[in-house]
Amino acid sequence: MRRAVTLAARALGATSPNPVVGCVILDAEGQLAGEGFHQRAGGPHAEIHALRAAGGRAAGGTAYVTLEPCDHTGRTGPCTRALIEAKIARVVYAVGDPDLRATGGAETLRAAGIRVEQGLLAEEAEAGNAAWLTSVRLGRPHVLWKYAATLDGRIAAADATSRWITSAESRADVHRLRAEADAVVVGSGTARADDPHLAVRGVEGAVQPLRVVIDTEATAVRPGARVLDGAAPTLIAVADDADTTHLKAAGPGAEPVDVLRLPRAERGLSVPALLAALHARGVRSVLLEGGPTLAGAFVAAGAVDKVVGYLAPVLLGAGPTALGDAGITTLTQALRLRMTETARVGPDLRITATPENGAAAVSTAVASTPRTPKER
């Protein structure tokens, strides 16, 4: 099963709006017969790839799958039928399928006389498929907030200089995070200060994420901005009453820029409305790379599912901090995190953490967004 989880991770950023799934098949003697993973939406599922690799050796064998085999016909047929026809004797899956259209695979397999077990390495499989599971359960994309800071929590010096606080190794690691995301989001402050490119570089075979700039007044992204170069798709989110005349021919080849109009919030744009709109476009995972103001808005909306902080062995003593006003006024309101990983990246320390309350930290407005079934 651990091998299946590893296989599934190979397709992070490439399968939306579908899940990432891995499958390993052992023959009747317990020897490896075949393996595979879901590579792209609309393509064969992990079980199909593994069964094709196993051939006749699948008969009487065991299939280890990270997600309950689907039991419906979408753009591909049900994996339950393929497993039954291959004469698999036993199926072990890690996580039950929460999608109401595709669930029921375990019952179908049992009815066909196949032994079925659930829960092996469920926590690892859940973590690897967090984006898709969040989207199905909450009706919005999974949000990973990434920031880079000094050891005393500064993301820039007092004079606003910030290149580079962290190392080249950390910056390369961020491109891996971008490659695993469906969308990269920044705010107008970052757009003005850095003119970021936001595309993936140095990751072979990466599917470029949607570049999203939250530009409430439509004043930060101007013709010639790097995010408009055509290297990856770009979406500019603006207030529903903003003037976007200057963006009508600012895209690559003088094409109109894709503009998303959203309702205003107390500060900037509505985060729940943004996430709902991205979800409707098939975005299942968001990498939040914005500055402290945008990060504060997402935390205040209960819309941060994971935090990755890169801490450099540097001290500044002054300058902006990583997180702005998040609506937290007393210690009892603090967003408590559970560290899930610490790792050295070059000279820096990468800390990964998730909210202790998990999904309970999500605001009611976001959690009540209508669910959209996966496209399978």
List its traits.
alpha/beta; disordered C terminus; 11 helices; 5-stranded mixed beta sheet; 14 strands; 23% strand; 376 residues; globular
Concise synopsis of the structure shown:
The chain has helices spanning 2-9, 46-54, 79-85, 105-111, 122-128, 130-138, 168-180, 188-194, 271-280, 292-300, 364-367, and strands spanning 22-26, 32-37, 62-67, 90-95, 115-118, 142-150, 183-187, 210-214, 234-239, 258-262, 285-288, 306-312, 337-345, 348-355. The chain has 376 residues and is of the alpha/beta class. Helix 3 (79-85) runs parallel beside helix 4.
Characterise the protein shown here.
The protein has 376 residues and is α/β, with parallel strands linked by helices. The protein has helices spanning 2-9, 46-54, 79-85, 105-111, 122-128, 130-138, 168-180, 188-194, 271-280, 292-300, 364-367; strands at residues 22-26, 32-37, 62-67, 90-95, 115-118, 142-150, 183-187, 210-214, 234-239, 258-262, 285-288, 306-312, 337-345, 348-355. The strands form two sheets. The chain has a nine-stranded mixed beta sheet, sandwiched between helices. A five-stranded mixed beta sheet has the order 2-1-3-4-5.
Q: Kindly state the number of beta strands.
A: 14
Give the rounded overall mean pLDDT: 91
Specify the overall morphology.
globular
Strand content: 15-25%
Largest sheet: 9 strands, mixed
Order of helices and strands: HEEHEHEHEHHEHEHEEEHEHEEEH
Cα radius of gyration in angstroms: 22 Å
Helix percentage range: 10-25%
Strand order of the largest sheet: 10-9-8-7-11-6-12-14-13
SS-based class: alpha/beta
